[in-house]
Input
Amino acid sequence: MKLLFIRHGDPDYTIDSLTEKGWKEAEFLSEKIAALDVRDFYVSPLGRAKDTASCTLKKTGRTATECKWLREFDVQIRRPDRNGEKIIPWDWLPQDWTKVENFYSFDSWWDNDILKEGHMKEEYDWVTKNFDKVLAEHGYVREGHYYRAEKANEDTLVFFCHFGVSCVLISYLLSISPLVMLQNFCAAPSSVSTIVTEERRKGIASFRMSSFGDISHLYAHQEPPAFAARFCETYDNKEQRHD
Output
């Protein structure tokens, strides 16, 4: 089975939709996804994800199941370097989050006062529990760190969603800390991340990432990726985002 996690196109957060560039990205993406044999589509309830999905769904004459838990990972945490400010969990400064050793552990990343205040583990559990329900419906049941292949298949499932929740779901499938993915991975708008099953022994399946943040559909149209989700490559670059 293949799972495709698609980040929405270049966003206009003020109206929860896409910029003009984002709509172009969504159209180029639709050419790629429409060529696939997709079993089911799932989509976040937020406008920017639904608008991105709309181009593919229109081209294929399909519909998508809207899932509340696919919305952007809705957690705000206390910013450790600025009193009174809150941030999303993937905007911590490196010199702050890397000090916490258990952030690198799949089994204890959540054991931190700031994350507990923000109820991040509760949100994580809610998202992953609902995700596992979908996988079970398609024949794969969580068993510790692997999945029981009760009905092994080669179906393709597509999830139109967001960067944060994609990192949470992928980290869960790979049994790694979500903090590591949220802080160290970057997926450009409209990018596609692909996870595939491997069943080397009958009934025992694991998920393996074959690509992350693929934007080949943009390169095919000579469309540069948007800078959204990234920070400045060098501190002296004043044109790129620092915070």
